[in-house]
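Whiteboard transcription, Tuesday session. T.W. wrote the structure tokens on the left side:
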């Protein structure tokens, strides 16, 4: 059962973050998709999916990658979109003084030269704790934790946002605001 939930979560991430058009799904500018349309599109392309499964994945996902609208009819990925049609309008917030970013050793040289960039995503993803950052970094190899001086960035006019799942977002983190944990 757990493997099914992981498979469904990966499928939802792919469709809701990166490629909704593959199943004929339309996302609004805030990333919301109609759950019934998602199920229909998935079935047309050979993915057996139902509302109970979707709600269980949203509820039980440890990273809270997805949100269901207040009316219960729509779903969206909390963040991580590569499709430019989605630009969730989060309100700017004052971040914690320090945030963290997990990466792998093979990316450190470029990051320490260029800072953190969103890559294919719309924002740089940051966490408010080392444990989450380490978990993220492990996905890419030997993890390295970077500390972000978010307070100083904010004082200098950089904007921070927080996704539905608690992930902190910003457009770019210049190298001057980064330090590598020992």
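and on the right, the sequence the group agreed on:
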């Amino acid at each position: 059962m757990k493997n099914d939930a992981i498979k469904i979560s990966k499928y939802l991430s792919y469709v809701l973050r990166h490629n909704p058009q593959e199943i004929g799904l339309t996302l609004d500018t805030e990333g919301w998709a109609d759950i019934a349309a998602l199920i229909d599109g998935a079935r047309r392309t050979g993915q057996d999916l139902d509302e109970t499964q979707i709600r269980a994945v949203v509820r039980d996902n440890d990273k809270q990658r997805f949100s269901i609208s207040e009316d219960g009819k729509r779903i969206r990925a909390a963040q991580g979109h590569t499709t430019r049609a989605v630009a969730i309008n989060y309100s700017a917030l004052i971040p914690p003084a320090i945030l963290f970013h997990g990466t792998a050793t093979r990316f450190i040289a470029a990051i320490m030269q260029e800072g953190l960039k969103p890559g294919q995503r719309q924002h740089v993803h940051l966490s408010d704790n080392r444990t989450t950052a380490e978990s993220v970094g492990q996905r890419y190899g030997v993890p390295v934790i970077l500390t972000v001086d978010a307070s100083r960035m904010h004082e200098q006019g950089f904007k921070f946002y927080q996704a539905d799942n608690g992930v902190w977002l910003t457009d770019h983190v210049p190298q001057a605001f980064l330090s590598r944990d020992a």
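Someone added at the bottom: The longest strand covers residues 98-104.
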